[in-house]
Amino acid sequence: MKVGMNLLLWTDKPNPSEHLKLLESIKEWGFDGVELAADNMDAGDARAFGLILKELDLGCTAIAALNASEADPASRESQLRENALAKLKHAINNTHLLGGKVLCGPLFQGLGRFTGRGPQTDEWDNAVDTLRQAGEFAAGLDIKLALEPINRFEMYLVNTLEEGVRFIKQVGLPNVGLLADTHHGNIEELNVPDAWRKAAEHIFHVHISENNRGVPGSGHAVTGEIFQTLKEIGYDQWLTIEAFGQQVPGLISRLHLWRDYSEHPDDAARLGVQHIRKHLA
């Protein structure tokens, strides 16, 4: 398994010139690669990052999310669905330019939209159709899509891995699978290891994220049982730390991050990679 670090701990707008030293530190701390927000990046920056990562011998995965007021695969409004497909294609292209092979994220629907009801049949079908088109485009660039079920407070279309499996089976493409996230599983799954075992063949990517979004290993969502389960199911892809703090103003209200979760802003990375390596040893 490879260990990655999501740059959203420090920035939601990665810039190759500003964040070179950060990438060098991530390499020094013992990571195999990084995860970059591919949706908020232009092609020139993606290409530049790709060259830097190659020089540093760092691998890469990419992440994206959609704002429901601008783009929504599940929307009843055709323009919002078209916008979602365009944004996904942009992120897929950038993933390719970065040198990555996986684009992940809660791509089932636009975030920030709730109706007061659970998913309706037409919303579900709209999302399946939009993600199928995105998946077909991604296949042409040899990119996998890892769709992330997230908790009910952030999304209502798909909250559990079981629901995610049903969704991707309807999409019906071999390059469209799931992202399993310890934070969201801690909220939504009755038993996280069991849920991961049942969805094992469809898990393309894993996020290591503590229950409070802080340092992996400091809470109750990232336990030794998680790593044992991954070994049992034969998972051998990326384990990427996704942690947050007070350093990215745009994420504070969106993710309800009302306090710091560690003594030092880099602790989630520096201490988190040590926690993961200990359990993988």
From TrEMBL:
Q: In the UniProt record, does the keyword Isomerase occur?
A: yes
Xylose isomerase-like TIM barrel domain residues: 24-278
Q: Does the keyword Isomerase apply?
A: yes
Recorded hits in InterPro entries, A to Z, give: IolE/XylAMocC-like, Xyl_isomerase-like_sf, Xyl_isomerase-like_TIM-brl
- Give the molecular function GO annotations: isomerase activity
Keywords of the record, alphabetical order, are: Isomerase
- The protein, known as: Sugar phosphate isomerase/epimerase family protein
